[in-house]
Amino acid sequence: MPILGSKGETIYSGLRVQLVGDAPEHRAAVKNALAAITEPRLEVVESETRLPRPGGETPDVTMVMFNGNEEAAIAYLEAQAAQSPRPAMFALLSGRSPVLMKRLLRAGADELLFLPLDPADTARALLKISEARWRTERREGGVVCSVTSVVGGVGVTTVTANLGLAFRVVLDRRVALLDLDHQAGGLAIYLNLEPEMTILPLSRLERKLDSIQLESALTKHPSGLYMLAAPKRIEEAELISDLTVGMVLDLMRQLFDFVIVDCGDHVDENTVAAWERSDHLFYILQQSVSAARSAWRFVDLFERLGLGSLQPQYILNRWRPSHPIGEKQLESTLGHPLFARLPADERTLERVEISGEHLWQVAPHSHFARALEALARRIVPQPQGEAAAPAAGFMARLRSALGAAS
User: Fold this and answer.
1) Radius of gyration (C-alpha) of the chain in whole angstroms
2) What are the φ and ψ backbone dihedral angles of 66, each rounded to 5 degrees?
3) Residues 161, 190: contact at Cβ < 8 Å?
4) Which of 127-141, 225-239, 342-356 has the lowest mean pLDDT?
């Protein structure tokens, strides 16, 4: 489903797949097979193997069928592969001829699939394209950071709010906070805000979310950052779906440099929807046996969720160098290194709470503030200093394809 910006432009939609073949009955069979794929979302259009007209809309994927006029199909594939930008090229074969497979790879085919289509293989190939496009779109927008734990009281809301303030006050970036800890609603309390609007009205918009509607639901903090608050009543939390969370984050990314999500201390469909859209997932823990064991349970859960290339980064909050449970012990329990340490600074945080002002107004040179600034600077995307890895060459793709055929 498309997500629209304030000017009606499409920000995100499913993959557009062009199905090319001379025989309508063969195209219909493939189209029926594609209709059974639920992830990624597909928009399928059909055409014959006539050369593409210049200036037309470029699909994300072009599937060319090879079960009849092979020369015309190869000419079509070559013409499409020469376009800029070019779609991903899938060749659909009715047989496993090594000679034809070599010709198709040389003509520019990125994937070789065999008829009748295997749903799992087809979905896997399409998901690779979808994820690559999603990563490109994410690079063009802001950075989304989710902050989470499965233990209460470790400082998820404190880290979320102050990390957002570090980006806004110290680095002068456009920042939005999203409170997904819907039952606690702690972000507004921590930031000393009384929001008139919350995320709840956005859940009633179904597919019509745009930037004007999102901006009307945001609450502005005196520092200049914005917050999308949790529902005012606890029971209203059940009305917020993962679909709403996904649409909100997709649009927030287009409007802000950094989006920080308070995921609270529980895991549900909404938090997983946020993780799926995150560039960073920060897990907060402390120096305690219970926190370390709970973090290990989180590691096990996260690995079973299978969220692609996203990996949790572990932040040790309220760190004390003299504590008997040291960093090495925590890293050994987790099986992962710690990403950052935020020092214990209860006195400073008490002053912040009592004053009603934010950390950089009360104690900008405190150890806690400096540690957060260092963390924020680590997260800021760096210019690409190295060229992207080259795509797999012809021989590598050939070996892969022939291996699949054997």
Assistant:
1) 25
2) -120, 80
3) yes
4) 127-141
Contacts of 257 (CB under 8 A, 6+ apart): 142, 143, 167, 173, 174, 175
| DSSP three-state, residue 265 | coil
Query: Which 8-state DSSP code applies to residue 52?
Result: P
- The number of beta carbons lying within 10 Å of the beta carbon of residue 8 is 8
CA distance 269 to 248: 14
* Structure tokens, 203: 């859940």
Q: d(Cα 399, Cα 106) in Å, to the nearest integer?
A: 13
Cα torsion 97, 102, 108, 111 to 10°: value is 50
Q: Does the pTM of the predicted model rise above 0.90?
A: no
Q: What is the per-residue pLDDT across 258-314, written as a single tens digit (0 to 9) for each? A: 999 999 998 999 999 999 999 999 999 999 888 888 888 888 888 888 777 789 999
Query: What residue has token string 């934010």?
Result: 358
- Domains identified in the chain and CATH numbers: 3-137 (3.40.50.2300), 142-379 (3.40.50.300)
Distance CA 70, CA 213 (A): 51
> Would you state the pLDDT for residue 392?
47
Tell me, what's the pLDDT at 140?
A: 62
Q: Residue 242 burial (CB < 10 Å; 0-12/13-18/19+)? A: middle
- CA–CA separation, 282 and 261 (whole Å): 10
Return the structure tokens found at 134.
């999603």
| Residue 80 CA from chain centroid, whole number | 29
Element (H, E) at 63: strand 61-66
Task: Report residue 263 as tokens.
Answer: 């995921």
**CA distance to 6, 40, 134, 245, 379, per residue, from 10 (Å):** 10, 17, 14, 18, 28
Contacts for 82 with CB less than 8 Å, ≥ 6 apart: 108
Q: How far is CA 16 from CA 23, 53, 109, 258, 305, in A?
A: 21, 17, 17, 29, 27
Residue 340's nearest CA partner among 143, 190, 145 is 145
Q: Identify whether the C-beta of residue 40 lies closer than 8 Å to the C-beta of residue 132.
A: no
The alpha-helical segments, DSSP class H, found in 46-172 are 70-81, 98-107, 119-140, 156-165
